[in-house]
Amino acid sequence: MATAVTEAVVDYDEALERYDPVMGLEVHVELNTATKMFCGCATEFGAAPNSQVCPVCLGLPGALPVVNATAVESAIRIGLALNCEIAQWCRFARKNYFYPDMPKNFQTSQYDEPIAFEGHLDVELEDGTTYRVEIERAHMEEDTGKSLHVGGSTGRIHGAEYSLVDYNRAGIPLIEIVTKPLTGAGERAPEVAKAYVGALRELLRALGVSDVKMEQGSLRCDANVSLRPKAGEATSEEQAAVPLGTRTETKNVNSLRSVERAVRYEITRHAAILDRGEKITQETRHWHEDTGVTTSGREKSDAEDYRYFPEPDLVPVAPTRETVEALRATLPEPPGERRKRLQSDWGYSDLEMRDVMNAGAVALIEETVAAGASPAGARKWWTGELARRANAEGRSVEDFGVTPAHIAELDGLVRDGRLNDSMARQVLDGVIAGEGTPTEVADARGLELVQDDGALEAAVDKVIEANADVAQKVRDGKVQAAGALIGQVMKEMRGQADAGKARQMILAKLGAA
Amino acid sequence: MNPDITRSSAAELAHALDSGELSSVEVVQAHLDRIAAVDGDVHAYLHVDGEGALAAARDVDRRRSSGEDLHVLAGVPIAVKDVMATKGLPTTCGSKILEGWVPPYDATLVARLRAAGMPILGKTNMDEFAMGSSTEHSAYGPTHNPWDLSRIPGGSGGGSSAVVAAYEAPLAIGTDTGGSIRQPAAVTGTVGVKPTYGGVSRYGLVALASSLDQAGPCTRTVLDAALLHSVIGGHDPMDSTSIDAPVPAVVEAARRAEVKGLRVGVIKELGGEGYQAGVRARFDESVALLQEAGAEVVEVSCPSFDYALAAYYLILPSEASSNLAKFDAMRYGLRVLPEGVDDPSAEQVMAATRDAGFGDEVKRRIILGTYALSSGYYDAYYGQAQKVRRLIANDFAAAFEKVDVLVSPTAPTTAFKLGDKLDDPMSMYLQDVATIPANLAGVPGMSLPSGLADEDGLPTGIQILAPATEDQRLYGVGSALERMLVDRWGSPLLTRAPELSAKGA
Amino acid sequence: MSALSRDDVAHLAGLARIDLSDAELDRMVGELGVILESVAKVQEVAAGDIEPMSHPLPLTNVTRPDEVRPSLGAEAALAGAPAQDQQRFSVPRILAQD
Lengths: 513, 505, 98
Description:
A: alpha+beta; Arc Repressor Mutant, subunit A; B: 505 residues; 11 strands
């Protein structure tokens, strides 16, 4: 078993010259159901220790489980969203092993009869290419309690004197999603892993089945990595024929960034071992985000004999095809397709759409457009003006208290010709300051583009008369000179004129339109 | 102590309570007195809750006198096998590992008893975690058969059967995984019923083998069993394996007691070699009585029953090994530190506790079950046993095409002496050979007294089996047979039991 | 079915977290052997196409609605605990890492 000594690694690019990485990703999703998988205890995050337990989830003698109907629905929806086949008939099974955070010393899970299987998720990478992640299965199980390890230096298990266990989390529904071995990613393996977990997270969020907060543990990822020799200038078929290497499983991967880093690290670590002609120890490893390395956990090779058998306290789950189709109808549009549709509807270029996505503003813009704004306007205000102000003040856009309805209204006022751009920005100031809605602010501040052509014409005439030499230049064909005149007209109008209209009028009057 | 009260059946007590002739407090007190007098010798109770029972009795009496509508059994006291969770009362399952554990909740069955206004006298003795056929594997000492204190009362529910046989309670709750209600009933001259699997809630029944366990009535008469069955039976949303249907009309069937035209099947594979002569003789006579009363009797063959014992002793230990894993000293129960180990780990404390807290029979079955479920062995052992189970169910189904009920002797022998079979686990297991098939198939079964064996004067029992969910057939046939037998004997069989010398009564 | 060796039994006892003494181990090897021979009988049965059975009635889809029910409360939950601290179950140091 490795100690705190850092293990040797090989340069990543070099490693990829000699080896072909294969990954298996296991993601556990904590469902956001109101109650636990097998009992009616609440699932609130952060409750006082052992305040959300009952005979069932505490594993008291005599207690029996009863399946949460909503958890089953969520499991089926997840399976459908991952293009899986939904089992006609499946069962729960007991996975038997002893551990103090497991009240029954077995976990009620699913073994060879998962509720969903044989699916896939097409994952878009940053450069726009797609990788198809094959999904082996998705199944239902229950979470364990949480242990606090006391004594010892790190609060971790090694060197702890004793542990304190809270069973509030025990029994919360989990869906475990397991990929097939992911091959062919080559040097992009870490990127693919990260993109997959990110895409999965987005999909689960869109389904509304989980909070998917990796930092809170409602989405957990275990990354399995193995290397096999690169078959030279082989075809992909020839590479596929090379047997898989020994894998290690890395846990404690708590963020998307960690996923990518951990996979990358394990590749370099495996490569170093294989280069030395040694064998990879099949084991569970623990990722450390701070030091960027994995350390050895316990050997997985003494394969825990889980002695699986069908759970006799539960009866099979056999969703009818009608039920499955009804649930299929509740699926939201897949996020990737939704994005394409919105981009097309809004008429954004790829770059504009990417900006909006990176700013996390897709939903905001959707809402704003729904409230009546033009897509261009919505984008301009949210990712342009407000984002700029947020950056300057070190705040986030949400902090301003500006709503999609506000922006839609503001955009409407501009398009209706009531405000020009500079006036609109003043109105926005007022909205942020809490003075009211855009219309209220414009009214209160007396901001209104003068629509009256008469007044504008009078102003134009006045300015032309007062600037005869400049006016002459324009007459003579120097159209740019009109700029100074426009400025003066705007001043004359106290800024409450449509600059474009003023320009038109000036040019028309000077015969240069 | 009022012997009239304690010798009465539950139905008679219910009648007396309803008419105002007796109060529940009187009834409970009479039983507490009887317990004090004889349980020192019988040792059927592990815990007696005099205070609680009297308080419940007072409450029922008060409600009755204020004119409230009460359940027919309201005020009739009952004993409960110590494998059922009873809130506020110790629940040991006959094991040291749960010594002093007081559940914070009631089993559904217990809640129903309380809701019916039935005072709970106490918890009865049992083989540890219901594993056994003699109650000798109780960590708290065996129970003695009221017919002969040097003999076993049967098991695992020897306490519940002894309690009613010794008049220490009119009714008791037992549980039956392979015969643990029926076999003790047979060897103590009482009535015991295992309902259809799923007919009575298992929520709060500390699991031995989840797919085989059922709770049921232990009584002195068939009608009493029917009355109790209808209190405890019925759907429970807390038990996923419970049947969502009304309790079969057991009381009605018990009262009607008809056998004319009934087709009765004698199971060829049960009752031949290995069955004590006296057991068989009484059985044959009972069958003849049924025939006289107008039943059609035929022999049926259920060949896969020959494999029932083997399948059972694979399925039970497998499920039990998993069910008993929760007893690990972390959350409740015994915690024992390993000797001579400084700063033991959780794993070490678990292992030391389980070695100290479990008895030999339990450890044997856990090891056996762990083996049967091990990777590489599952298909050949547990997997195969579940298939044999299907064959047994098929044999029952085929038989029930031809007959309405099946019959056999309940157990191969009468009550043997304490200590006789302790060194030979297999011979102990053979006690269950006739009762096990019903658990495997989930069909309901009843044992009622069929007489005393000539060779030793000890009780024997006849077992009646019916198709799943047709529990009422047991009560119909059982009640009719009971009446005929009691007629022939002149009085219930239990009246022949020797008087237990009351200690300072 | 092969007989169980002493090592086999020791291994199983480890899996089952029971610390058997040497004497217990010896006795159990003999007892289990006899039981196992009888149990091997199930393998005599030709059960190729038979559906395994777990419940007499083919129940399926038993579920409950996702509605909160009262919990025990921490006090009742911890009432039987051999050791507790800070409203949690106190357990000795755990060796194996999950």
